[in-house]
Amino acid sequence: MTADDTPIAEKPAVPRDNLARREIIGGLRNAMWVGWQMESNWTKTWIYFLYAATRPLALCLIIFFIFKFAGNRPGAQTQFLSTYVGNAFFTIFIAVASGISWVVIQDREHYRIIRYIYATPMPFWIYIVGRATVVLAISLVSLAIILTFGNLALGLGAPFSRIDWAVLIPSTVLGIVSAASLGLMFAGVCLVTARHSILMAEGAGAVFLLTCGVIYPLEVLPGWAAAIGKVLPMTYWIELVRRSFGGYNFTPTLADLSTKGTLLGLSVLTVAFALLAFRWFKFAEDRAKKTGQLDMTTNY
Amino acid sequence: MTLTDAVDFNRAVLARAYVRVVGVNREISWMLAEIFLPMLSVTAYIFLYRALGAPKMYEGLVVLGAAMIPFWLVVLWSMAMQFYWEKEMGNLDIYMASPTNPIALLLGMAIGGLVMGGLRSFAVLLVGLGVFRVELSVTSWPALVVAFVLTLSALFTMGMAAASVYFVTGRKGIKINIALMEPIYMLSGMFFPMKNMGRILGAVASIVPLSIGLDAIRQVTLPGMANLEFLPFKVELAILMVMTVVFGVLALKLMARMERKGKTEGTLTEKWL
After folding, report:
1. Among B residues 185-214, those touching chain A with beta carbons less than 8 Å apart
2. Sequence ranges of the domains in chain A
C-alpha cells in the first residue's frame, strides 16, 4: 500500500499551527505567482521591467525639465536632488497603495474571481499581501532604474556609495508598511463601494503628493494643508529618504527634528496606520459579506 | 453610399455620441474625478514652481497644460481603448451583428468625447483661474480658436486611428495606455515649455499632436512665452493640419483592415486575454 492509498482516517494528523502556516505560505506563494502572471505575462520580462519603469521615469523627467526651466538659482542642485529622490521614492508609495486596492477591483469586477479566492483556505488579506509583494518588487526595480538614470543622465549627484543605508533601509521598510496599510484601507473601501472606487487610489495618491511635501517643502503649502502633511507617515518617510541621500534642510520645519526622532515618529505613525488599516479592512470585509457586496459587479 | 445608408450612418454617430455625452456625465463621481484628479497633480507642480521662486506666468503654463489633460484622457481611454472595453463587456459582437459602420461609432465617440473633454477642460481652467489666479492674456482669439480646433481634430483622428489597433489587442492595450499617460505628459511639455526638451526630444515629442497644439495655444495665451516657442505658430498649425489628414486617412484604412483581421482570427469576441 502506498502513502496515497492510506485511508484518510489513518493518516497522521497535521498539527493545526503547521497547517495554518503551510496554508499561509502556500497561499502567499500562489498569490505572488498569480500577481506576477497578471502583471507581466503579456510580454517578455525585460520589456515588462522597462514598461514598469516608464511611468515613474517620466514623472522624474518632468521634475528634471521643470528644474532645467525654472531652477537656475544658487542651491538649485541640492534642491533638485531632494525633489528627484523624494519623487522617485514616492512612486513606490503610489505603486503599493494603488496596487493593493486595485486587486479588489480587478478580481471582483474584471476577472470575477473574488468568490473563488474566498472559497480557498487562504485568508483574503494574505492573497492581497502576495499580490502587493509582486508590485513592490517591480517598483523597487523601477526605483533602481530611476536612480541610476538620474545619476548617469541627469547629473543627480547621488552615488550609491554615499547613501546612508542605516537611515534609508529602516525608513523605507516603514514607508512601505505605511503604503501597504493605506492600500489595505482603500481595498476595504473598494469592497463596500461600487465602481467609483476605481479612481480613489489615484486621487488619494495625488492628495498625498500634494500634502506630504514630496516635491516641495511643506512651507509652500497653506497652513491647513501643511498640518495634514505633518500627521501622515509618508511626510517623514520622504524626509528620512532625503536625509539618507544627504538632502538636509529641504523642509525647514522638519529640519529641527533629529533623524532618530523622525524615525521614531515614523514608526509610531506606521504602527497606528497599520492597526487602523487592518481593523478597517476586516470590518469592510465583514460588511461586504453580510450585504452581498463581496462579488458584486458594477460595470467594469 | 445610398441615402438610407447615410441616414443610418448619421443615426449611429448620434446614438454613440449620445451615450458618451449623457451616459458618462451621469456618473458624477467619474466626472468629478476627471476634473479634480488632474487638478491635484497640477497643484503640486504649481507649488513646485512657487518653491523655485518662478514668475507667476509659469503657473499659467501649468494650468493650460492641465486643461488639455482631459482631452488626452478621453482620446486614450475613451477613444483608443473603447473597442477593448466594448469587447470585454460583450458589446463588440453586438455592434458587428448590427448594420452599424465602425467608422460611425468612432465619429460618435469623437463627438461625444469632445463634449466630455471640453466640459472637464473648462472646469480645470475655471479652477486654475479662480483658485490660482493665473493670468492668461489672449493675443488673438481667432488664432486661439484655430489652434485649439486643429489640436483637437489632430488628437481625435489620432484616437480614431489608434482605436482600430486596439480592436485586435487584448490586455496589452491597457498596459500600452498606462505607459502613455505620464510619458505623454512629459513629452508634450504639459508642465514646462516644449522648447526646454531640446530639438531632438522635441522632434520626437512632435509626433503627439498635443505637444505641438499646446505649444501653439500657449503662444497666443501667454505673451511671455513668445521666446519659448518650439516652432513658429504658423508652422505648428500646418503640422496639425497635416496630422489631421494623415491620421484621418489612417483611421479609415486601419479600421477596415483590423476589423477583417479580428473577424478572421476570431479575436473580436475574446475576453480577459
Report:
1. 185-186, 189-193, 196-197
2. 17-290
